[in-house]
Amino acid sequence: MSFQKINEDDIKFFQLALKEKYVLMDEENIARCSGDQTEDLKFPPEVVLQPGSTDEVSAVMKYCNEHMIPVTPRGAGTGLSGGALPVWGGVALDMRRFNKILLVDKRNFQVTTEPGVITQELQEHLRAEGLFYPPDPASKGSCFIGGNVSENSGGPRAVKYGVVKDYVLNLEIVLPSGDIMWTGANVLKNATGYNLTQLLVGSEGTLGVITKVVLRLIPAVKYDLLLLVPFRSAVQACEAVNAIFMAGYTPSALEFMERDALEWSMRYTQSTGVNLPADIAAHLLIEVDGNHMDELYRDADAISQIVQQYDIDEILFADSYEQKQMLWVLRRKVGEAVKSNSIYKEEDTVVPRAELPALLKTIKELGREFGFHSVCYGHAGDGNLHVNIVKGEMSDDDWAHRLPQGIRRLFTAVVALGGTISGEHGIGWVQKEYMDIAFSGLQLQIMKQLKHTFDPKGILNPGKIFMS
Amino acid sequence: MSFQKINEDDIKFFQLALKEKYVLMDEENIARCSGDQTEDLKFPPEVVLQPGSTDEVSAVMKYCNEHMIPVTPRGAGTGLSGGALPVWGGVALDMRRFNKILLVDKRNFQVTTEPGVITQELQEHLRAEGLFYPPDPASKGSCFIGGNVSENSGGPRAVKYGVVKDYVLNLEIVLPSGDIMWTGANVLKNATGYNLTQLLVGSEGTLGVITKVVLRLIPAVKYDLLLLVPFRSAVQACEAVNAIFMAGYTPSALEFMERDALEWSMRYTQSTGVNLPADIAAHLLIEVDGNHMDELYRDADAISQIVQQYDIDEILFADSYEQKQMLWVLRRKVGEAVKSNSIYKEEDTVVPRAELPALLKTIKELGREFGFHSVCYGHAGDGNLHVNIVKGEMSDDDWAHRLPQGIRRLFTAVVALGGTISGEHGIGWVQKEYMDIAFSGLQLQIMKQLKHTFDPKGILNPGKIFMS
User: Fold this and answer.
1) What is the mean pLDDT of the segment spanning A74-86?
2) CB half-sphere exposure, A459, CA atoms < 13 A
3) What pLDDT score does B273 carry?
4) What is the DSSP string of B125-155?
5) Which of B163, B187, B245 sits opposite A423 (nearest CB)?
6) Which residues of chain B make contact with A154, given a CB cutoff of 8 A?
7) For B287-302, how does the pLDDT look when each residue is reduced to its tens digit (9 = 90+)?
8) CA distance A125 to chain B (A)
9) Quick check: A285 pLDDT over 90?
10) pLDDT at B1
């Protein structure tokens, strides 16, 4: 790459374009924008820019494109594949000032928002209007909706309601050239030209900078119930997942947690809310939702009957707000708990749902072969299993050189099961070396040509998704 | 374009690649593949090829790409925007031999099918296994699933269940180069590279030839109820659509028919099943579905209460198979009925749902200004209104020269309402002259570059979507 280092003239331009106070080079901001939630990776940008309008983003992009300065867009920095790491230095384009919900169009069940709004705040704002935006990644309390769009995030409710891509109707983006465009229209059905919107969703900030997001919404759902089911066999827990769907039920969440995941999360959050007998190997956390409590009790009862066919302990049935909150906090904090416990790597495997038991067995076999311990949990209803590989006693040398071979074997097995290497975290910086397992040379070449169409000079979020 | 005419050597190659009997130049096949259901447009291909395998498609594409022979893929020829018209002659690639359902993966709620399977047959095959593939375009009894994918078709049930794009997980395609590739993976969540699958869906056969389709499925739904609600004001009928959603109900179909639409369809099908008093201006056809009859009656009752607030006549409540069939046939035959009645043009407008009343008013005003009569009907729940402009008494000259100005005004109004120019029929041949209303030069340029990435020589379905 023939990227240019940022010089004094560049800074002067940025200060003119954005006002001085939004051009940051202090230690704290540089440090903050050096990393995200991916392992302990740090790549400092040369400058942090905080544009406040689409026109300002456009001015920055145009300038950087002309001057071959790499630009890495950044949301809240909660990513798990290193998508926001400024691996080539240059500009960290910090989108936090894009924090306004622009229009709640209640008549059309749509919202137009800026990308820097925190997902949970957006959800709560909409819920107060009787509207529901379902995708809720574990980091919903801090992540930005723009980052969710960029990574095509999921979360527990995807099993019933779909992922981010199923809600994005239209995006305003700024191209590397500085040109501003919308990707589609604010309509529920669209057969007008190529689907640029869906090409942008999940493109990890490599094709354009998202400056506005139009989401479709659904009517708010009134009630939910939550069940925590303890299994004596983790493989049986995976099997039960499929049995629930085969019986015709679609829970609004169907989460799997290995024993360690729950135990570590309980320790991390100092929770005593769940009794964890020694013989329990895994849990399913099952939510049903709807507008009529009698129907929820009926469905919860039917699901209880189904899981009773397996070797389970007593089901914890949560219908109070406090109990449900307690269980969801435990589930959402697993990632942080693992991180606090050890150096780790998180793999975001996804397979056709019925292959989950096979995937889990393979993971454990590979762990024995390569000497790693893994804590598995995730969105079992979607076949999306997060594999946290903890360093524990592994030597630095094995961690650096032998483990990648194990991960390669894991992803190869995932693809052989009909799956792929990321369900909702993206490829970013840390998974790109495995893309050849999921895709042929031809597929990668087509994708790179698409990148080239949007970003011919390669200045936007360089070093991501592709090896070269 | 520097396309080559097909010569004897080309024919010899095709005969060798496909067997002689699948290389057709007889009058009947040439005539059949000259048109689709779009107006009366006819563009004869030079030869009709009927490949029987992906490898055969690959051989044909490679050859045609090398020899600059245009190739137009063809499903069942039910398209309404001329996507299958061989406007440059060359090869009509008739996919009817791709008629096998390859794998029903009941455990994973997926099906892998060839593209030449009739949509309704696929649906019935799956329903017998307890599985449901919802998208059901009006032509479902004859259209191919591959054509549905190419156009991103909808149909009445899109309002609750989404359109084709919401069900396509993965596609096997043959590129113009002859290279074969899959676009994604058979998983419910995917954050691995760019979404090539969604780029192909709705690309109208211009980026690759679809040879296998992997669809996600949902559990079959047991029951449905149907209501036909007669309104004395068409605008009020549109308003009622929104009131139903605002009250928190999501019907499994919410169809609008102007009086003429229903009346013409009744005449065309010789049906006497519906009483049509003189003061009725429009109908809503409303379906609710679910697995518990008591809930359906409850929802149907609530919806009835909502529509009672408008000036309506007696609701026809259909719960027998025969009654429901009768009403659906009337709805599905509107298009054919209009076609049998007059030369016509069908516009496939789509707006944010709440803008339907405004759209309907605009259509009628433009009709008065430009002297055309229109029959409007469609998927009101999605804001997708089909506008059938009938020639009637209009002079040939006005039809050819004045009407396009009226259509231009109509589409301009649609875009001003936040909508776009095709909801489910595609752009194809007949709407491409209006693409500049929906898209800026920049957007069109990006789309053309995407086309170029997949089809650098421009031999695959040339003349579609773009003016040049």
Assistant:
1) 97
2) 27
3) 87
4) HHHTTTEE-----TTTTT-BHHHHHHHT---
5) B187
6) 189
7) 999 999 999 999 999 9
8) 17
9) yes
10) 64
Is residue B76 within 8 Å of residue B118, measured between CB atoms? yes
Nearest to B376 by CA among B250, B276, B273, B238: B238
Q: Which two tokens mark A358?
A: 């096979």
Chain A residues touching residue B158 (CB < 8 angstroms): 188-189
Which residue has tokens 């009859």? B293
Task: Determine, for residues B384 and A189 on separate chains, whether the beta-carbon distance falls below 8 Å.
Answer: yes
Question: Measured between CA atoms, how close is B177 to chain A, in angstroms?
Answer: 11
Q: Could you tell me which chain B residue has the CA closest to the CA of A242? A: B107
The arrangement of strands across the sheet holding B71-74 comes to: B23-24, B47-49, B91-94, B71-74
Pairwise CA distance, residues B225 & B234, whole Å: 23
End-to-end alpha-carbon separation of chain B, Å?
10
DSSP state of A422: B
Task: Indicate the average pLDDT of chain B.
Answer: 96
B189 → closest Cβ in A108, A163, A248: A163
| Interval B40-66 mean pLDDT | 98
Q: How many contacts (CB atoms, under 8 Å) link A and B?
A: 259
Smallest CA-to-CA distance from B377 within B348, B355, B411 is with B348
Q: How far is A213 from chain B (nearest CA, A)?
A: 14
CA-closest candidate to residue B356, choices B438, B248, B239: B239
Could B107 and A246 be called an inter-chain contact, meaning their C-beta atoms sit closer than 8 Å?
yes
Alpha carbon of B330 to those of A24, B360, B461: distances in Å?
66, 21, 34
Q: Say which of A107, A202, A420 has its CB closest to residue B185.
A: A420
Q: What's the predicted TM-score (pTM) here? A: 0.97
A463 Cβ partners below 8 Å, 6+ apart? Answer: A87, A88, A429
CB B353 within 8 A of CB B242: yes
The rounded distance, in Å, linking the Cα atoms of A458 and A447 is 13
At A333-368, the pLDDT tens digits run: 998 998 888 889 999 999 999 999 999 999 999 999
Neighbours of A26 (CB within 10 A): 9
Q: In 3-state terms, what secondary structure has residue B315?
A: coil
Chain B neighbors of A220, CB-CB under 8 A: 248
What mean pLDDT, rounded, does chain A reach? 96
